[in-house]
Every structure is written in C-alpha cells, then in structure tokens.
C-alpha cells in the first residue's frame, strides 16, 4: 500500500471514529429530549458509588488498553481527561480520556487538555470515550465537568465495561471513577 492510499485509509478511520462519537452524543440527546422528566442536579442523576476513594487495581493506560479491549468485557483504564479542546460533553455523562504518555500542548495553544501538536493518527490511537449510562445503555443526562473534581487534565482510573472496541474507537461504560487528587 502506497503512502497516498495509507493516508486516505487513515483519514477514513479517523472520520469514522469521530462520526461514532458524535453519533452517540446525538442519540443520547434525542433519547433524553423524548423523555422529559423532573429537573435534577447532575449529582442526583449519577449512580451512587460512581466516584471511589481508591484507584481500582491493574489499570491499563489507554493506548495499550485499546489493543486488548473486547466488547462486553470488564476493563480498568488509566488516563488523563483531554485530547480535545473540550473533552467533556456539555449535557451528558461523557468525556474523552487520553493516554498518560501523550503530552498535552497546554498553554501553547491556550486550551488545557488540547493536544494540538500531536499527529492525528497517533492521538486517535491513544484516546477513549468514557460514559456513564442508564439501564438502556444511553449516556446519562448529567454533565461531568466539575463533578468530584473532574476537569480537563485530571488523572483518573476508570473501572467499567467495554461498550465498543475496534481499531478506531474505544468506548467504556464507567462503573467507578477514581480521580487522582495528587497527580505526578
């Protein structure tokens, strides 16, 4: 395969990954718009026990986890919230997690959590989407930013179930989130 074909294939894979993540957000938005209910605080919507005081053991960094993740199987994932200028979904319990080994641009581009100078292919290979879902598998309508100290660049460990895993995307339904309050 020549470089041109490889670049086209890489671009298509990146586009598919982006469409899947955006599609999940749209499905969640549509589902929650159809079922209005009483307005509750984001903390009241999140399941009890979601945030834990100690890190689940045997966590894998995002990059290596993508290589072994299997849909429907448990996983423990370690990473840093970021990879995009806005790594949190505004209205749903979803965020992007990047591998700890991928360095952020930080103040260079003015957006904490943005990875503007990382080649797109390398960045996509080191990202995962984390979501907290309801019994039907739809992301909860509860923005996560600020919850239990979650911010762009927060170091976290996630214990959950792999919802989707392929060469382009890793989506994890979180059961527990540990926020490292003393990052290295």
Task: Map the helices and strands.
Layout: H1 3-34, H2 42-45, E1 51-52, E2 60-61, H3 62-68, E3 74-81, E4 94-98, H4 120-124, E5 127-131, E6 155-165, E7 170-180
Please tell me about this protein's structure.
Strand 2 (60-61), helix 3 and strand 3 (74-81) form a beta-alpha-beta unit. 34% of the residues are buried. This protein has a single domain, classed as OB fold (Dihydrolipoamide Acetyltransferase, E2P) (Beta Barrel), CATH 2.40.50. It has 4 helices and 7 strands. It is of the alpha/beta class and 184 residues long. The chain has a 5-stranded mixed β-barrel with strand order 3-4-5-7-6. It is globular, with a radius of gyration of 16 Å.
CATH fold call: OB fold (Dihydrolipoamide Acetyltransferase, E2P)
Helix content: 25-40%
The separation of the N and C termini measures 42 Å
Strand % is: 15-25%
- At CATH level 2, the architecture is Beta Barrel
Q: Which structural class should the secondary elements be placed in? A: alpha/beta
Tell me the strand order in the biggest sheet.
3-4-5-7-6
Mean pLDDT: 80
- Mind telling me the CATH superfamily name? Bacterial OB-fold
Give the CATH class.
Mainly Beta
The succession of helices and strands, N to C, reads HHEEHEEHEEE
Compute the CA-based radius of gyration. 16 Å
Largest sheet: 5 strands, mixed, barrel
What's the shape? globular
Short structural description:
By secondary structure, the chain is an alpha/beta fold. Helices cover 26% and strands 24% of the residues.
What labels describe this entry?
five-stranded mixed β-barrel, 4 helices, alpha/beta, single chain, globular, 184 residues, OB fold (Dihydrolipoamide Acetyltransferase, E2P)
């Amino acid at each position: 395969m020549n470089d041109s074909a490889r670049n086209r294939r890489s671009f298509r894979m990146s586009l598919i990954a982006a469409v899947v993540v955006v599609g999940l957000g749209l499905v969640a938005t549509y589902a929650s718009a159809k079922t209005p209910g009483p307005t509750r605080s984001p903390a009241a919507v999140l399941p009890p026990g979601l945030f834990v005081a100690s890190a689940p053991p045997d966590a894998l960094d995002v990059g290596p986890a993508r290589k072994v993740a299997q849909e429907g199987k448990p996983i423990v994932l370690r990473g840093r919230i970021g990879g995009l200028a806005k790594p949190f979904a505004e209205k749903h319990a979803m965020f992007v997690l990047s591998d700890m080994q991928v360095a952020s641009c930080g103040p260079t581009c003015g957006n904490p959590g943005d990875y503007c100078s990382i080649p797109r292919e390398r960045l996509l290979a080191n990202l995962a989407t984390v979501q907290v879902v309801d019994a039907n598998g739809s992301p909860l309508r509860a923005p996560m930013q600020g919850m239990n100290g979650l911010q762009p660049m927060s170091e976290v460990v996630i214990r959950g179930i792999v919802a989707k895993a392929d060469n382009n995307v890793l989506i994890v339904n979180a059961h527990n989130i540990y926020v490292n309050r003393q990052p290295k």
